[in-house]
Amino acid sequence: MGLINFTDSVGIRWRVWQVETPAARAHLMDPNYRSGWLVFEREDGAERRRLQQVPEDWASLAPERLAQLCTHATPVVSGRTNPSGQQAVWPRPPEGARREP
What we know:
Blueprint: E1 3-7, E2 13-19, E3 37-42, E4 48-51, H1 63-72, E5 74-76, E6 98-99
Parallel strand pairs: 1-6
Antiparallel strand pairs: 1-2, 2-3, 3-4, 4-5
């Protein structure tokens, strides 16, 4: 599953997708993100968050559970660094598979 859209309990629309760390670059990453992470992005692009512990079944979770995970995700400030310590260049949401719960 590539990209999932959901609405949180206060009506904010989010999209979430998984970023996988290439094995060849994992040693360069912050240890907390070496296994990849989930990106939560507000539909209007005003906010992004990342969750370091990716549940195996994240793509099949109910919108309420995705919203809970989003509240636990770390906010990312634009212009800061990504988990490897480099200038943040965020992966774009995957094209194709979308689910609207």
